[in-house]
Amino acid sequence: MGVRWMLAGVLFTIASPALADCTVSRIAELPVTMQALRPMVDVKINGSPVRLMADSGAFYSGITPGSAATLGLRLEPGPPGMYVKGINGTASISVATVKTFTLAGVDLPNVQFLVGGSETPGSGMLGQNILGFADVEYDLPHGMIRLMKPQGCGRMDLAYWATGRPYSEIDIASRDARNPHTIGTIELNGVKLRATFDTGASTTVVSLAAAARAGIRTDSPGVQPAGVMRGFGRGVMRVWTAPFASFKLDQEEIRNVRIQIGQMDIDTDMLIGSDFFIAHRIYVSNAQHRMFLTYEGGPVFNVTAHYQDSSGAAVQLPARDAEPTDADGYARQGAVAMAQHDAKAAIAAFTQAIAKAPAEPRYLVQRAGAYAATGQGAQAAADLDAAIRLKPDDVDTLIDRAELRLREGRKAGALADLGAAAQAAAPAADERFQLGGLFSEVDQSARAVEQYDLWIKAHPDDARRPGALNGRCWARALAGTDLEAALSDCNSAVRQRPGDLAFVDSRGLVELRMGNLDKALQDYDAVLAKEPRMAWSLYGRGIIRQRRGDAAGAKADFEAAAAAAPRLADRANALGIVP
C-alpha cells in the first residue's frame, strides 16, 4: 500500500560554515484552508474536487464511508483482522483504490485509501503515508504544509525561517510501520509527558492518568465538564477542561492554560492538536528524528500566549508575510484569522478575496461565517444569498442559510432551503444527519425520518450513530407516529451511550405518547435529577403530574419549563402534546 512520487520543488541552501553542502528541497507545497481548527487540503479523486483534512495523527490516508459511496469508489475488504484504532475505540475498514489521485497539481496513479469509521470534516484525511514519507513543515499560521527533503545536513538545525529569532527543538521518536506518528516529550506542570502531535485533533487533550501525574483530576478545583469528543472509532470520550500552571516545550513555556482532559485509549499521554499548531510553524525532521518550531503569534490552546525568552523579556514576533497576490491566498489568510478568533481580520481578508474573484461562491460563504460570528446577521444573509445565486445546489450553503433563517424566525424560508438541500445531497452524504435535525426543528417529522434513514444506512460504524437513532426517535415522538419504532431507536441509543441525558429525555416523550406514564416519569426524573433545567423533561413531567391530579407539582414544572424555553408550550400544544 505504498505511494511513491516526486514533485518539482524549490531547492534552497542553509548557510553554515560547518555544512556548506546542506540543501533542503521543497518537494511539494500544499495550500491549507482552515475550517475552524481543521486544516483542509484541496485534492481531486478521479477528477472530482474534494477536500481532505491533513491529519498527522492518522497512520494512513482515508476516505469517509459517505464520500466513498458518493464518489462511486469500489471497496475491497481490508487485510484479515485489520482494524483502525482511534481515541474513542476501533472501527473495521475496507480499502478503495483511487485510479487518479491529484495532489499539488500532480496526478498519482492507483493510490489506496482506507474507508471506514466516523465521518470527518471534508471527504477524508491525508495521513502519514503521505505527510510523513519525507520531512514535513506544518505552517498553519500561513496556510501551508510543505513536504521537504534535506540532503547533506547531518544534525544541523532546520528552522531555516527563524534567522535571528528564538526557536525550540525536541527529539521525536523514530517512525516505522508500528509507530508512524510524530511523538515527542513535553512538560506539563513540570511533569514529563509523551505527546503525539496530531493536526487531526482540533483541540489538545491529556489522558486522565497523565493529568493525574501532573496533579489534576476531574474533581480538582477549576475543572469543568466540556461534553464529549469523538474520533475515528465508534464511541465518544467524555472530556473536561482543566487548569494547568505550565505547559513547556523546550524553550517555550505557556503559563496558566486550560487544556482538555479525558479517558483516552492511546499509546501516549496526550494529543497536541491544531489549537497548538495554529500558532506555530513546525518542521518535523523524520530524517533526524527532531522537531523545530517557532511561535508565530495568536492564541495557543485558545488562550493568548505571551512569548518570553529565558530572561523574561518579550520576544519580537515575526513580521507579517507579504500580502497574498490571489483570491485563494486571501481566503486562506481569512480562514487562519477565524481559527485564531480574529473575525475582524477575517472579514477584511475575505473581502479582498471576493474583490479578486467575485464569481467564486466559497469566499462569500466564508465571509458570511465571519459576519455571523460577529452578530452581523444581515450581512451574513446577503453573502449567503449571493453565494446561492452563483451556486444554487450547494448543500452546505443551503443548510447555512436555513440555520440563519431559523435563528431569525423565518421558518418558511428555512424549510425551502432544507428541501433544496435534501434534493441536492447525495444519498449517503454526511449532511443528511444535520438535515434530519433541522427538519425536526421545523416539525417536519416524515422528512426528518427520511434523512436519518439514509444516513444510518450509509454509516454503520460512525460515532454519531446513537445520535442519529435518537434523532429519528425524537422526530417520531414529536409527531406521535410509529411509536414502537421510535421506542426501539431510543432504547438502542440509550444502550449504546447510557450517559446521554438527551436520549433518555427523548425516550420519556415516546413513553408519554404511548401512555406509559410510569416509565415516562422514571425517565424524566432521571434526567431532571442531573439536569434540572431540561425543558422538555420538565414539561413532560408536568403533563404526567397534571393527569394524576398533582396541580401544584404540574404548575411548578410548567413554570420551570417556560423559564427554560419560553415557546415550548406553544409548540407542544401545536403538536398535540397536552395534559
TrEMBL record:
<feature type="signal peptide">
    <location>
        <begin position="1"/>
        <end position="20"/>
    </location>
</feature>
<dbReference type="GO" id="GO:0006508">
    <property type="term" value="P:proteolysis"/>
</dbReference>
<dbReference type="InterPro" id="IPR034122">
    <property type="entry name" value="Retropepsin-like_bacterial"/>
</dbReference>
<dbReference type="InterPro" id="IPR021109">
    <property type="entry name" value="Peptidase_aspartic_dom_sf"/>
</dbReference>
<dbReference type="InterPro" id="IPR011990">
    <property type="entry name" value="TPR-like_helical_dom_sf"/>
</dbReference>
<keyword id="KW-0802">TPR repeat</keyword>
<keyword id="KW-0732">Signal</keyword>
<dbReference type="InterPro" id="IPR019734">
    <property type="entry name" value="TPR_rpt"/>
</dbReference>
<dbReference type="Pfam" id="PF13975">
    <property type="entry name" value="gag-asp_proteas"/>
</dbReference>
<dbReference type="Pfam" id="PF13650">
    <property type="entry name" value="Asp_protease_2"/>
</dbReference>
<keyword id="KW-0677">Repeat</keyword>
<dbReference type="InterPro" id="IPR050498">
    <property type="entry name" value="Ycf3"/>
</dbReference>
<keyword id="KW-0378">Hydrolase</keyword>
<dbReference type="GO" id="GO:0008233">
    <property type="term" value="F:peptidase activity"/>
</dbReference>
<keyword id="KW-0645">Protease</keyword>
<protein>
    <submittedName>
        <fullName>Aspartyl protease family protein</fullName>
    </submittedName>
</protein>
